[in-house]
Amino acid sequence: MAAEQTFDFEKYTDKYFLRAYEILQKENLNPFVRAQIFVRKGPGIMAGMTEAVTFIRNNSDLEKNGGRIYALADGESYEPLETILLLEAPVLDIVRLETVYLGIISSSLAILNDSQQLNLKNAEERMRSVVSAAGTRPVTYFGARHWHYKDDAAISKAAIDGGAVGASTDIGAAYLDKEGAGTIPHALENIYAWKDGKDSAVKNATIAFDRHMPANVVRIALIDYNNKEIDDVLQTAASVPSLAAVRIDTCGENIGQGALSMKDLENKTEPEIAALLKAFFSTETEIEVPAGDEKYWFGTGVSVTGVYAVRKALNENGFENIQIMLSSGFGDAKKVEAFTKAEKIIGMKLFDSLGVGGIYDSRDSTMDIVAVGETIDSMTPTAKVGRTYRPNPRLKRIV
Known about the structure:
Elements: H1 15-26, E1 32-39, E2 44-45, H2 49-58, E3 68-71, E4 77-78, E5 83-90, H3 91-94, H4 98-114, H5 120-134, E6 139-141, H6 152-161, E7 166-167, H7 170-173, H8 186-196, H9 201-212, E8 220-222, H10 229-239, E9 245-248, H11 262-265, H12 270-280, H13 294-298, H14 304-316, E10 323-327, H15 333-346, E11 353-356, E12 365-373, E13 380-381, E14 396-397
Parallel strand pairs: 6-7, 6-11, 8-9, 9-10, 10-11
Antiparallel strand pairs: 1-5, 1-12, 2-4, 3-5, 3-14, 12-13
């Protein structure tokens, strides 16, 4: 597929990027940022880069405002986690573009390297299995960036037919006569980390969201930016009385604050592990982790023990009514089932809703802001924990 020269890309954009753009405009915040893009799945041959860069150049003022683009060329090889694209530009020039250019790259890589073709019926069935595992809790489709924007309406329809209650883009949610759904992106928190310091980034980004968004938009804070999920959730809940929920999206590089990890279990006997679990979950009942579910309880990213730690902290500090939304990896129904089984074992509800993207196979690309500054030459390292700058001398400057 080829991108048009210019088009109404906002309807294909995750809603939270549009809201971040609006907030930054109203807050008069437009620093330069360095944004790096990588792919976990590899190695492979680059594809979609020409189309993605063309889209960026045609739909932003990046060049006029002194921005730069560095990229690998289509046909070149790439490795997992290697930086394949680097953008340096005022944040307002690029923050709305991420969904579309990531989708172009992700789908192009999957088609070229894996002969992957979009199977809408399979996507619908995968969503149905996730929705079934979640029970009565709402599931929203958050996967627009994983495939080409021209297919987003069809994929969102398949997700909704599979039981999803909404989608993150306006074009996707139109099937239900709704607007796209969205919370707060890490990109917005990055700007507040630069402006006010990392320790208050989550709180201050949420306060700005609350200040500028219409009253009918649900207030949901994203709490994993600093990998201090407990500290940030308590600080934010205390500062934003209208807070309805928090989203936990801990990345695969991190162990959630307060969680148990595989390292905590190393070199321990079964009785020692049993005692550790009893103490952690504050119970005298034996905690038996189902075979095969250990990675969901003690692994990196969003884990059972990490979410439990956040839920417990909220409850113990008077925030029982604040709900928890989970994202990152929940397109896998087995992960959802592991969490619902864990709830029965530990006797606590862990989550109230899900944001789900991975209901079809792709080579998902990811963007992280890794530096921020008043000018392109004064940017300093500023990134969410686990995602630091990875320079790549193979990149060639395009703009």
